[in-house]
Amino acid sequence: MLKVENIQAFYGKIQVLRDVNLDINQGELVALVGANGAGKTTLLNTISGLMPKASGSVKFLEKSIDNLLPSQIVEMGFSHIPEGRKLFSGMSVRENLEMGAYPKRAWKKREETLREIYNLFPILEERSAQFASTLSGGQQQMLAMGRGLMSKPRLCAIDEPSNGLAPMAVLELFKIISSLRDQGVTVLLIEQNVKQTLEIADRAYVLENGRVVLEGSSGELLESDHIRKAYMGL
Amino acid sequence: MILKSKRLFYLLCLLLFLLIMLLSPLYTSDYFLILVSNILMYIVLTVSWTIFSGPTGYISLAPAAFFGIGIYTSAIMGSQFSLPVILATGAAAAFCCALLVGMVTLRLQGIYFTIFTFGLVELLGEVVQWWEVNVTGTTGRIVPGTEYTTVYYTMLGIAVVLMLTAYIIKHSRYGLALQSIGEYEEAAGHTGVNVTALKIVSFAVSALFMGACGVIMATRWTYIDPSIAFNPLFSFLPVLMAIFGGVAHLFGPVIGAVIFSYLEEFLTTQFPYYYMLIFGVILVIAIVYLPTGLTGLIRKLGGRLRRRHANT
Asked: So what's the ipTM on this one?
């Protein structure tokens, strides 16, 4: 579904991505894990067209998306739920969600999708008239995810959803993310929280200093010495 | 059900009001028509300013530039063409100019955009001045005049089309997207908005109406020169009127324009020497005490009344 080949990217003269390859199949929950500064968010930004890449190619749904605008990539069904939520804080919860349905494909069905999102996150329906800024951290992350899902994505890339959340909220959120996969949404989950992420993902890539150093099924990675030593402190 | 009948009621009120406006030349004086045309001009400038700058928060000081383009279109084409042709040309010229300016400047954010748009007014004024002195050898131009009623009906027509356009934009996904650009431009990009294109096009749509407005106003003034056509007041007043009325609701800029332009008329006739001073004081008070404008105040009072009603 998503095929990333040999991506290189730079910030000025500093190379942040080196020959990154990534492959996601329909219906999978794939994780991309790594420490701060490993290049995870940069990789996602180059895929969704927000940042230029020096070389390499990205194919989504068998089509090259290298020269498309971010808006066109969203229109194709790639939803990028950004790190740090980036909500429209002065707009109501409902308006934030409606805004998620901006792509033409999704706009017509927005009432219907809104119902689904409210079923998935009942708290958002309760708070629908409130400003997004009045929500708690966990609720804001739910809103960010709801907004991303309103575009009826084929693939949903979620960047660090656990960022700044209480352990209980993370647990709840991860449950919802794995339920997304069960509903047929393909998910690319970007996380630093390696252990919990590997527990819900099918497969994972480990990014270090802009390079994929490990990849494999979550079970294998959870057993690997490198992961246990570097990310779990075992 | 209640919602629907309420909407119908508003619609009927609007239609009735429009009918009164349409028939008013039959039973009012010329003075009244000129006054109302003037008010309509400010309504058009203010509401069209609000289409783009209201939701996005990009404060444009370019209205006078697009207005001036309309005025000069009128002056250049005036004697050879019929009014509808000139109107269309003036609107199109303003639209195209705004597209160009938008492409260059809408990558700028905040105050830089504002300063550039203000510079545009001065630039166009100076260029036209230079052209007139060096090429055509004049400074002013005579514009063939039209009847008061023609000016009135044309202005009314522009205002009606503008209100409809503004309403449609506001209630479409583009209206929501413009608002989200104002809230958080980067996040708007994430949700799939082509931010740059949307900003440029809506900026140009707002300019289109300003251009048309300039075309018809020039025929009433009959004599124009660069300092009349590109008068920065036509940039500042719409902004102030919109802020005074409040930009969150479509009627905010209308109310602001009506009150301010009537106030201007009243003050210039009653206190010709102090009118700018009084104007300024009212404005400062409005900005300090009415941050969300008159409509914001009305909404707040309405909410308070409703709550009191609910409590008892």
From this structure: 0.90
